[in-house]
Write a structure and sequence with these properties.
Blueprint: E1 10-16, E2 21-27, E3 34-36, E4 42-48, H1 56-59, H2 70-86
Parallel strand pairs: 1-4
Antiparallel strand pairs: 1-2, 3-4
């Protein structure tokens, strides 16, 4: 194996900002922002928007963004265009 061609792997804290969940993992990512972990050591902090703690696939909880479905919105938006083209 060639030396100095592989990225450095280090412990990093990932923080899910949507549900305030943090976990320590190994990664090649780095950050100037540091955070003190449960073991008392400081690690680089990487913020993420979605993790296994907040993703609907893992939690089993689906977030409803709106009451209308996409197909209903499409039909409502373009319903009059079809009749206008026939005239």
């Amino acid at each position: 194996m060639k030396k100095e061609i592989h990225p450095k792997v280090q412990p990093v804290v990932f923080k899910d900002v949507s549900c305030d969940y943090s976990f320590l993992s190994l990664s090649t990512l780095t950050s100037k922002e540091k955070v003190k972990w449960e073991d008392g050591k400081e690690y680089p902090l990487i913020t993420v928007e979605v993790s296994s703690a907040s993703h609907p696939f893992y939690t089993g909880k689906q977030r409803i963004m709106d009451s209308e479905g996409r197909l209903d919105k499409f039909k409502k938006k373009y319903a009059n265009m079809g009749t206008a083209a026939k005239k």
